[in-house]
Amino acid sequence: MGRQSRTLAAPGADPSRFGMSLTAFSLIVLAGLIALNRSGTSRLWPFLAGAIILWFCVLNSGIHATIAGVLAALAIPMQ
Questions:
Q1: Which DSSP letter does residue 38 get?
Q2: Residues 6+ apart with CB under 8 A from 11
């Protein structure tokens, strides 16, 4: 039996399909969430919209979607 490789790809995702472009867009969305936090935005809806877009892009890029949730949670202000 061959050795199985462990990847962070989501089950059923095809990393070669959209891969790099969605990953790059995910980084842009994450930067936007961090910018919202730094600018003092206290409304929840911009963060929720950004988190949903981030989750969708990360999931379809082939990276496990749990990572998107963790990154989005780190970008949301605590107060």
A1: H
A2: none
Token pair for 1? 């039996």
Task: Take residue 52 and report the two structure tokens written for it.
Answer: 């949903």
pLDDT digits (tens, 9 = 90+) for 8-26: 556 665 555 567 888 999 9
Q: Give the model's pLDDT for residue 39.
A: 95
50 Cβ contact partners less than 8 Å away, ≥ 6 residues apart: 29, 32, 33, 36, 72, 75
Is residue 12 classed exposed, middle or buried when 0-12, 13-18 and 19+ CB atoms within 10 A define those classes? exposed
Cβ within 8 Å of residue 41, ≥6 positions away = 47, 77
Report d(CA 65, CA 52) in Å as an integer: 11
